[in-house]
Design goal:
mainly alpha; about 0% strand; 2 helices; rod-shaped
C-alpha cells in the first residue's frame, strides 16, 4: 500500500514543488520569510545594493586602467633608462678610445716634429 501512495502523491508533490519554484523562494510564515515581490523595502534595498555593486565595479575598472597605464609608463621609463645607460656606456668607451689615441699622438708628436725638422733642415742645406 505504501509504494502505491508514494507513487501517486510523490508525483503530485514533485509537480507542485516545481510549479512554485525553488524552495528558498517559498513564502514560509513559520520562518517569517517574505518574498521580495511582497516587500517594496526589500526591492529598494536590492536596487541600492545593485547600484553599489555597479559603482564598485566601475571603480575596479578605473583602478585596473590606472594600474595598466602606470605599468606601461614604468616599462617605457625603464626602457628609456636602459637606452640612456647603453648610450652612456658607448660614449664612455668612445671617450676612452679617444684618450688612448690622443695619448699615443702626444707621445709620438715630439718625434714627428723632430723628424720633420730634420727633413726641412736637410732640404734647406741642399
Amino acid at each position: 500500500l505504501h509504494p502505491e501512495l508514494y507513487q501517486r502523491f510523490g508525483a503530485e508533490l514533485f509537480n507542485l514543488q516545481n510549479a512554485n519554484g525553488p524552495a528558498h523562494a517559498w513564502n514560509q510564515p513559520a520562518l517569517d520569510v517574505v518574498m521580495a515581490k511582497e516587500s517594496p523595502s526589500l526591492i529598494a534595498e536590492l536596487a541600492s545594493e545593485r547600484a553599489l555593486v555597479a559603482e564598485l565595479r566601475e571603480w575596479a575598472r578605473q583602478l585596473e586602467e590606472a594600474r595598466d597605464w602606470h605599468n606601461e609608463h614604468r616599462q617605457m621609463a625603464e626602457k628609456a633608462l636602459a637606452d640612456a645607460e647603453a648610450q652612456l656606456r658607448s660614449a664612455h668607451a668612445t671617450l676612452q678610445e679617444l684618450r688612448q689615441s690622443c695619448a699615443a699622438w702626444r707621445r709620438q708628436l715630439p718625434y714627428r716634429l723632430l723628424r720633420r725638422a730634420r727633413i726641412l733642415s736637410d732640404l734647406q742645406v741642399d
